[in-house]
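Please check this record.
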Amino acid sequence: MIYQGNAITVARGDGDIATLTFDAQGESVNTLSSKTVAELGEAVAALQAESGLQGLILASGKEAFIVGADITEFHGLFDKGEDYLVEMNLKVHDIFNAIEDLPFPTVAAINGLALGGGCEVLLTADFRVMADSAKIGLPETQLGIVPGWGGCVRLPRLIGADNAIEWIAGGTQNRADVALKMGAVDAVVSNEELLAAARTLLDRANAGDLDIAPRRAEKKGPLKLNAIEQMMAFETAKGFVAGKAGPNYPAPVEAIRVIQKGAGEERARAQRIEAQSFAKLALSDVAFNLIGLFMNDQVVKKKAASYAKQADNVEQTAVLGAGIMGGGIAYQSASKGTPIIMKDIQGDAIELGLKEARKLFAKQIERKKLTVEQMAEKLSNIRPTLSYGDFGNVDLVVEAVVENPKVKGAVLAEVEEQVGESTILTSNTSTISISRLAQNLKRPENFCGMHFFNPVHRMPLVEVIRGEKTSDAAVAATVAYARAMGKTPIVVNDCPGFLVNRVLFPYFGGFSFLVEQGADFQRVDKVMEKFGWPMGPAYLLDVVGMDTAVHANEVMAEGFPERMARDSKTAIQVMFDDDRLGQKNAKGFYAYEEDKKGKPKKVSDETVYTLLQDVVGEKQEFSDDNIIARMMVPLCLETVRCLEDGIVDSPAEADMALIYGIGFPPFRGGALRYIDALGVAEFVKLADTLADELGPLYAPTEQLRQMAQTNARFYAAE
C-alpha cells in the first residue's frame, strides 16, 4: 500500500500500475471535502516519492465517481474572505497540477457521476475512460460560482472553447456518448470493462502507441484561437448566455470571461485568473442564496426519502376526473412507469385527458427524449374508464374533480366503497380543508391531500397535506408516489390554503392594495419581474384564473378574516365580475393572443383601466422599493406564520415550497432567507411602518419581534 487515508487509498498492482481509489469511509458518496483534498495532496506526494511506477488509475469505490466538492462547507469557507479563497484554490491547483505532471501516464476510470470538483479531478489525467451509464459535468454556475479547480482552464483546451462554454455556462450533466463525441473522454465501455479498458490505455501509452506529451502540452498551453476566432467564440457566447441567464445570475457570463481571459495564457496564469473569479463570485449574495437553496433541497429530498422508506409499494394508481388536470396527472404517472386508471363520468372529459397526455408525450418525441415505440408503451400505462370496475386493485387514488367541497366529498365517499381497505385516497385540492373532506369517509386515516401545481408536467412541487386523522402510512405512501412521479413532495399540515396558497394570497392582497391606491398594475408587474419573479402579480393572476383566485381568496378570508378579509371590492373581483378570467378566456388584466407556437401572448388592454376606475383611487407613483416592500412583506410574514403555526416543519421546507410551487426567485433563496438577508430587525421595522397604513396583513408576529430583539435568524447555523 502506497497510501492509506480515510477517503483515499493508493495501491501498487501488477505491472507497477498504481490505483488511487476515492472511497470515503462511512459515506454513501465521494465528495471533495477539505479533509479529502488534504488526503489527495498526501496521496500525490506519496506517488511522487514512489519509484518504478508505470502508470496511475484514478478510480472510485462508490457508485458515483465524485459528486463534487462538499457544498456543506461552502458558507463557512466563503466567510473567510476573498484572499483566503484565492489561496485555497491555488493550493488545490498545485495538487491537481502534480497529478497532471506525474512522470508516468495516468487514466481516470469514470464509473458514475463525476461533477464539479470530481470532473475537474478527471480532467488532470492523460486519458479518460467512461462507463456508458456515467455522466460528467461542471454545474458550478447553478450555485452562482464558476469552476475553481481547473474546469475553466482544462476543459476548453480539451474539447474546444465553444463546447466548454456550453457545458460550463449551462451547468449540464453530460452522457457518455456526448462526452466521447466532444473529446472529453477517450473511450466508453460497460462498467464491468472499465478497469480493463483503463489498463489497456496505460499499456498502450507505455508501449509508445499513445503519446502523452502532446496531450499534456495542449492542456498546459494557451488556447489555439486567433483573435477573430476568440471574438467569435466569446463575444457571441456572452450575449447569448446573458440573454438566457438574465441579470440576476452573473456566473454563466463570468465563466465565459474567465475562459476568455485565460485563453492566451499558460496554465499557471490561467488558473490564477480562475481562482480570483471564483473568489469574487463566492462572496456574492447570489452564490450564498443558491448554495443555501441546494442545501435546503437536500433537506427536503432526505426527508421525502425517509417517508418513502416507510411506505408500502404503490404499483397501481387511479385519477378521478379527467380533463387537463387529470390528463396531466395521468401523463406524469405513466411517463415515470406507474400504471394509472383515468376515470370520469363523461366520455368527452376522458378524451380531453387522453388528448392532454398524448400531446405531452408527442412533445417528448419532438425533443428526441422518446421514440414513437416508447411513447406507445408509456401511453399504454394509462387506462381510461367510465366505471369503477378495476378499482379493487388500486393502491392509491388521486381525486381531481372540480374544486367544490360537496362534489369532492361525494366522489371520495363513492370511491371509498369501491377500493380495498388499505387503499390510500388523496385529494388534489388547492384550498379545501383535508379534515373537512375526511368527515364523510369511513377510513379517514387512509386519506390526505396531494396538491399538484399546474402545469403538472412542469411544476416540481407536490404538497402532501396531513389532515387531523391522516395516518403516517397514508402520508408515506403519498410521498413515495410523488417521488416515483419525479416530483418533490413536501409534507404540510392542514389549514386554509395549506402552505403555498396561504402564502401566495397575502402577496395578491398586497397587489390589490397597490392598485386600489393608484399604482399602475403593469408597472407593478415590471418591478416584480425585475425583482426576480418569473411573472408579475397581474400576469400571474391571469395565468391562475380570476375565478380560481376569487374562490381561493374567499377561503382565505373565511380562515383568516382579521388580515385577509376585505370590506371593499378588489381589482381581482372587478376582473371576475366582468368575466375577465385571464388566459382561460383570453382576457384578464391583459388580453391574450396566440403566438407563432400557439401559446398565449399577453398584450396591453387599455379598457382594463376604465373598468378599474370604480376601485382605484387617484393615480400615484410608487418607488420600486416601495412596490417591492408592499408585495413581499405580506408574503414573507405569512411564511413566518406558517412556520410558527406548525403548518410546515422547517425554514428549508417552507422556502423550497415557495421556489418550487410559485417561482419565488431562486437567487433570493426563499422568503425566510430573504428576511435573514434584510435582517430580522430591519424587516420588522419595515413591516411596522407599512402596518400603520395598511393594516394587519403587514403586522409582524410577536415571535418575530422577539427574534428581532435577540438578533436571531431563521438559518441560525449559517
Summary: The chain has three domains: 3-283, 314-494, 501-709. The chain has 31 helices and 20 strands.
